[in-house]
Design brief:
Blueprint lengths: L9 H9 L5 H8 L1 H11 L3 H4 L2 H9 L6 H8 L4 H14 L9 H11 L2
Helix pairs in contact: 1-2, 3-7
Length: 115
């Protein structure tokens, strides 16, 4: 069970903000951002240990490691692999000093969906 309203996180807010402008698959993957972390903690040995202290804290607020019943419900979802990929990209983006693309590099894609 999820914690109170404060646990409504950036993944839910972000999905709501973009839902009218992106394909449903994209909005779903954004909405699943926290659940993807919960899923990976439950299914991938070592994943939890690689989380930052902040991510471990929010994991507790987001419902903790995903139980088997939720894993079973998600396992067959056609977009699950995309949500897990998005989560992994987010994890890699948190590496201090990692070179990243500039906002200018993403401008054509951003303008496509947010004219």
């Amino acid at each position: 069970m999820r914690a109170g309203p404060r646990a409504r996180g950036h993944h839910e807010v972000g999905a709501e903000l973009i839902a009218s402008r992106v394909p449903p698959r994209v909005a779903w993957c954004v909405r699943m951002h926290a659940d993807a972390k919960r899923y990976l903690c439950a299914t991938e040995p070592g994943y939890f240990g690689r989380l930052s202290a902040a991510s471990r804290h929010t994991l507790r607020l987001q419902g903790g490691v995903m139980p088997a019943c939720e894993i079973a419900r998600l396992a067959g979802h056609p977009w699950l692999s995309d949500a897990l990929a998005l989560r992994r990209w987010d994890d890699r983006a948190k590496i201090p000093g990692k070179a990243t693309s500039s906002l200018t590099d993403w401008e054509p894609l951003i303008r496509r969906f947010f004219p």
